[in-house]
Amino acid sequence: MGAFSNKRAVKKMVQAFQKVLGEESIDDLWDDRTENTVEVLYTGLMNCVDDELFLQEFLPFGSTYRKAGEHGVYRRNRQVPIEKVMQEHILLRDVFWEYRRSRSEKEHDFAVEKRVCQCFNNLLQATVQAYQTREPTMDILDPLRDELTGVFNSLYFMTRLEEEVKRSERYLRDVTVVLLHVDSAFEPESDDDDELMKAVARVLRRNSRASDILARVEYDKFSVLMPETRTQDADAASKRFKDQVLEYLAGMGDSYADVNIEIGIASYPEHGEEGSVLLQEATESILREGLGGQ
Fold first, then answer.
1. Which DSSP symbol is given to 106?
2. Alpha helix (H) ranges present in 218-274?
3. Staple 71 to which of 18, 37, 39, 164, CB 3.0 to 4.6 Å?
4. pLDDT digits (tens, 9 = 90+) for 212-252
5. How far apart are the first and last CA of the chain?
6. Residues 72-83: tens digit of each pLDDT
7. Which whole-number Å values give the CA distances from 208 to 78, 119, 140, 204, 223, in the listed order?
8. Are the beta carbons of 246 and 240 closer than 8 angstroms?
9. What is the CATH number of domain 152-290?
10. How far is C-alpha 134 from the geometric centre of its chain's CA atoms?
11. For residue 100, which of 84, 87, 117, 82 has the smallest C-alpha distance?
12. Alpha-carbon distance 197 to 256, whole Å?
């Protein structure tokens, strides 16, 4: 389904949701903020139908999960009983599945249905968590996480980098930093640029190893800390990352076709014996590559 069709479908579902709220006599829950939240959730669900990777946005630390959690906090702070919020969640599901059933030409895809069910379960988890948390915040609003993408931020990354360097020194192991600069013509912090950063994070999160530490270390830079990894192995992995990201972005439309990923690599002990030195070396290697050097 194309982007235009998705927008039209989301609009229909939002309208249907509001109508059902009125029929169920809980239309007192409807306001501009709720309308925006419902639109975001349905947009995320439709994206997840088309794109398996988008499921990550519904996992803890994902943007759609966060939106559901913030909505739960909003409801709780307005002293809306959780029973009403559960009813609201059920209606959200019912409207979505009714829309899916109405598309008679659509064949059943059990993999998609399973994925969407997981999305709804995670939305419910975010809501319940909001009601169980004592403070008016969410665990997902973690100070060690990047708010936009949900991956770790530079504070956590640098802490772990220094720890891994010390561990590598102690046990005579390698550790490598891969830096990926996302180069695009989008206006920083625009909607298109935000979607780009979230997409890059989805691909890197999916394709990095469980032992790797993925972080957004600057606005347009991601870094993957790879313990016990030599330079040549990290180089091969970074090229895969780049190919996977660019392939994924190509499927998002022509506006993402000109995005480029620049790579920098630095390893302990080859390029430095401190974490900050390794990150700086990785940054400089990107600059040297841009100038045609090695």
1. P
2. 231-250
3. 37
4. 999 999 999 999 999 999 999 999 999 999 999 999 999 99
5. 44
6. 999 998 999 999
7. 41, 22, 21, 6, 11
8. no
9. 3.30.70.270
10. 26
11. 117
12. 11
